[in-house]
Amino acid sequence: MWKTILRRLLVLIPQVAVLSLLVFILASFMPGDALTGKIDPNVSPERLEELREKWGFYDPWYVKYGRWVTDALSGDLGESTSYKIPVTELIGNRAANTFWLSLLTLGITYIIGISFGVISGRFNGKPVDKAISFYTFLALAMPSIVLGVINIYFFSLKLNWFPMGGTVNVGMQPGTLSYFLSRIHHMLLPAITGGVLYPVGVIQILKSEIVDYKISDFVMTARSKGVPEKTIYTRHILRNAFLPTAANLGYDIAFLLGGSIFIERIFSYPGMGNLFLDSILRRDYAVVNALIILFAVLTVLGTLISDIIMSAVDPRIRIK
């Protein structure tokens, strides 16, 4: 297992290097720069050209890439041209918000997904299964933007149950119970929005596995021997059916930590996904490049987590 983890981490290095190179090449062909759109009567064109020369906007892409790699290896990812603070500090502040929102969303997703998947698989073809299937089709077709707007309209504007955006009420002191409860209150509506839409894959995979294992040979043998149905489901069917679900857990973690971009955007939640969109619109390439690299690392780590979970759930599996 440790050899596998080390091998994956070593493979991560060239993958990130190639991805960062591609990102820089593509960014060099994008029109405009961080100063685009800042032209007004108070800033002369000569001053803008002076700033472009100072910040190295006219340097070849390979020069800028080499400078970025050298600084990144020393822990310096540059400075955000929009927020005027170091990129590491900016991403660090947003990463904490995304982490807690992702954790809450993941919990809701798997509570709904596992519950509905087990019920749908066990009562396949029954009215409850048809109701769950209708829910999955509706959730699959529903864009997160639409559901987010509907939730804001009803639960924030009409009922006033949840705030429309942000992370905490103004004036709260960090470390207090009221501050913690306010953070949870602000996260609930975006987490529920994502948690209602994202379980579709979990439900469908779990249902399919349960239906297949219900008619498998070893299950039929257990029934012929008089094994109780509850024992068959818990020890034979569910234990094997959970393997694909466990395998997808790492990918779901990486996806959510990468930032549910549209969810964060709709609810004005200051996470990494919202920061990513803002940085693209403002042409803040230092932040964009750093976030893309971070998302790539999270994807590879998600694959590694899935492999570890798979081997932990079923010791018969050996990663080669």
Automatic annotation (TrEMBL):
It is found in: Cell membrane. The chain crosses the membrane at residues 99-120, 132-155, 187-206, 249-267, 287-310. It comes from the Bacteria. It is a multi-pass membrane protein. Coiled coil: none annotated. Pfam families: BPD_transp_1. Belongs to the binding-protein-dependent transport system permease family. PANTHER family: DIPEPTIDE TRANSPORT SYSTEM PERMEASE PROTEIN DPPB-RELATED. This is Dipeptide/oligopeptide/nickel ABC transporter permease. It comes from Ruminiclostridium cellobioparum subsp. termitidis CT1112.
